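Figure S4 source data
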Amino acid sequence: MIKVLMIGPARKVHGGISGVVNNYYEAGLDQKVNLRYIGTMVEGGRLRKLLRAGIAWLSFLAALPGCDIVHVNMASDNSYRRKSVFIKTARRFRKKIIIHQHGGDFETFYRKEQSEKGRERIRRVLGMGDAFLVLAPAWKTFFGELIGTERITVLPDAIAVPEAYEKSYDNHDVLFLGRLCREKGVGELLSCVPALAAAFPDFHLYLGGVWEDEELRRLSLKDKAHVTWLGWVSGEEKQKWLRRCRVMTLPSWFEGQSVSLLEAMANYCGIVAADTGGIPLMIQPQETGLLVPVKDAAALELGLERLLREEELCRRLGMAARKKVEDKFGLEENMRTLLDIYEKVLGGWKKS
């Protein structure tokens, strides 16, 4: 059995990478390979994060000699900086390395926040990967400029699709799931509330996530009749809101891909999302949802208003979104592809 040492944020961290990792565990990846997972980051203060990083580093050093593959889940900024240390160490131990890039803003990090020497270091570190996984074709193009396309595979995020059911579209409820910050388009979303509340007396916006911007949190409290903060929702609680709400929106400024968007599609939601990153891989305009320009509050409002007003359109798009997830983003097929990549990285290794 292939021995995989996987690293990424702790599985209890609120975020997309943790969701992807937990989905793999729920699908039984740890039964297909000998999987050891080390969380390199936790939420909390600086001291707590440094302590976790130190413990993760020692655990990684202890586990490294016995593994066949190091699978690195990474985004940009501090995530890249942490993981670059692990990648370079794994290379010194001559281990096979898979770099799994999840971040939606790596291009900005690379092009605008680095010196030429910094960009050279990034190219060198990323080039240490024996395989490089990205979430969408656009990222294959970008990272291909840095390390060449030969080792890059597009592996979109995937989910376990819930059982089919009959969804009701007789409400005007809109759901947002994710980090509650400006980069996720929450400011633009909140600016739409007055007009939507005037158009639909029963309109309600439900925000599921952790606040990262105090000004936006205060803004959301100005209309408690139409805006409710759910806190971070997961498991059955998340499924309850996905089943209930007619529309899901994700007006992010940038996005690698979005597990929560896939979950909404699987629950027949009408989708209004930003045209950025890996989202167009999931949403085809007028077919599986509506796309709006980034940072365009007026377009976002029009898209939401349209799906809240046109019930049959919302139903048609929701049904098509569900089918797309079933056909293209099921977790079992995704995991088979990942296992094939593991075997190819090891030179065609097959279990006995």
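Figure S5 source data
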Amino acid sequence: MLRLLVCVSGGGTNLQAILDAIDHGIITNARVETVISNNENAYALERARSRGIEALCLSPKSYETRELFNQAFTDRVKRINPDLIVLAGFLVAIPAAMIEAFENRIINIHPSLIPSFCGVGFYGLRVHEAVLARGVKVTGATVHFVDGGMDTGPILLQKAVEVCQQDTPRELQQRVMEQAEWKILPQAIDLIANGRVEVTEGKAYII
């Protein structure tokens, strides 16, 4: 049974998609052990608590320096020792020590088709604003492994979503979540939980 740690900063819609997928047998051989947020008011924490899942807040604001936070965050995750860390809308940079300790055991969902509209500054609604400003006709979402760069790790799954001419950023955000993020994140977890993913020479393969 794959033990999951889900990290989230906001409402936790991707967390809910994971929980629903487990309930409906879309994700097999996995369970959410712990949810961590950097925001004590994140509704994701309430989603976890209502399911009897350990819910923790670890905020950089509670530490004098980012280095102290990084150390505390890494130490706590090492104590939890999850089989897989899932970044589901987590707006905190993952410490290098954690990436090293959990190599190829951290995945992230990004709301675009990497390598487009990703990297520094591309998060949340900003991604969809940039998509509409550029006028592209297709966007989507990507599940990738986390490495030392920003959205540069091996890509596991992607799903395309049509951009409509009348879209607002929030409308596009919702469509990308419904049609892509909530589909491929559970799919990725299920693949990993059942031993069907291999990372070799910087690329992720489904086996």
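The chain has six helices and nine strands. The beta strands are 2-7, 30-37, 54-57, 84-87, 106-110, 138-145, 155-162, 197-200, 203-206.
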